[in-house]
Amino acid sequence: MTSLKKRIEIAKESAKITGVKFQNDFKLDELKNLKLVLFVDVLLFIPTHEKAQLFELFYDKLENSGIIFIKDTLKSNSIRFRYTSVEEKIKLKFGVYGENVKAHLHYAGKEEFVEMLTKTGFELIEIAEENHLIYPGIFIIAQK
């Protein structure tokens, strides 16, 4: 099973538990001229090299001046990050995202996101680090 197919199966399993409607009736090679691509709280489950591949893939699928929006957990040395990473490991252990979801956590720091996106060709429009009391996050808006 390819990595993408495996990730789709994991998403379907998680959707059953969370009640989110999962729809995957499109063919990836048919996508083109996208205006916006959202990555919200999913990149932490994807290894770094696969994140870079995803950014390259969707860079090619975006129309000129298309936007990529990222909201994810920010890797850091903070107590907030340590709390969040332990919480996510517990959720995985107890099957919160699905019984068969045995993903590993692959957090990225601000510099890693910047490097992957700029190497792909994106222009960084906005980067905001979330200063919420518990959850460390990053918001990134980048443009083709």
From TrEMBL:
SUPFAM superfamilies found in the cross-reference section: S-adenosyl-L-methionine-dependent methyltransferases (SSF53335)
Domain of life: Bacteria
Record Gene3D superfamilies: Vaccinia Virus protein VP39 (3.40.50.150)
Name of the protein: Methyltransferase domain-containing protein
